[in-house]
Amino acid sequence: GGDWWTRTPKCQVYVHEMMPDPLPERAEKLRALLNVNLNWDTRHISSGEQKRVQLLLYLHVDKPIIILDEATADLDVDQRHELLKFLYAESVEHNKTIVYTTHIFEGLSDWASDLIVLDRTKGGVHQVLSTHNGDRILLSDLYNTLVELKDKEIF
User: Fold this and answer.
1) Confidence band of 29 (pLDDT split at 50, 70, 90)
2) Cα–Cα dist 18/37, whole Å
3) What are phi and psi of 119, to 5 degrees?
4) For a 10 Å CB count at each end of the chain, is N or C smaller?
């Protein structure tokens, strides 16, 4: 995962060399959550481990808006769950805006306050769903919408 990691480094690059020393509290919390070993040599880690390192490098810096594209794609179920809990807490407890694109909707019930469904046949927005008017975003409705959109596509 990720365009910046398309080639293995030619020399030893350890995770701890890319992180501040000592680790700030937020970084240590994320390191533990993502189960990242700071002594990993990045030449010899799996795609799932690469994804976890990428997430650590991106998320350890506190920012008001967090933008993630398929962030959980290479994570196992437990790590995915823990990352989603962390992101939800960032949004609810710390008033962060999370922009999260995904094709994996499991575990996201009651998670989003706004949802934008894109339609590649139109090259744009198909539908915008929001909880701001008191409605719930039902994933069952979303699945039906996605199936309808998929049926419109021509291959």
Assistant:
1) very high
2) 12
3) -120, 110
4) C
